[in-house]
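Holo prediction — zinc ion.
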Amino acid sequence: MSDEPIIDLHSDHYFMGEALRLAVRAYEAEEIPVGAVVVRGGRIIARAFNQVELLKDATAHAEMLAITQAEEAVGDWRLNDCTLYVTKEPCPMCAGAIVHVRFSRVVFGVSDAKGGAAGGALNLLQFPGLNHQCDITRSVREEECRSLLIGFFSERRAANKAAKAGPDSDSGQAAQAGAGGED
Ligand SMILES: [Zn+2]
């Protein structure tokens, strides 16, 4: 292909790649794989991944953790000159926080038609009655973001099934044996 993309360290593609790396870390920690970064003036000032299980805190979504970090980095609760990159469309809780801190722009990977609050199920980021609206860019590296989530949930379903089948079932061990190749 002649239109091979040039690596641009300030591109949405690049920053979503950083968010994806964090989502993989969530996956490895057996958390729902969502990652987020906050960018200000072309620099990443916050990186986080979903830690709901680890922290036993339903509010510990990647976006919430990244927002707190970014506020610390900026030294203010206002993040108007910042962009949030997140692998999955923000939920209503995170979208509420995003509006409160006044992000100028939100970039996400995969949409969530059931629970997304950036245009999927509802749109809190551009809600006419609220005092702040964010620009939204959707579908950046969407396939990679989606396949992480799909992989995670299908693995979890398989594990639950194996657990239900009990110790006599060979499916759990077969999965283990099939993994191999770890260094
Ligand atoms: Zn959320």
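READOUT: Confidence is low (pLDDT under 50) at residues 171-183.
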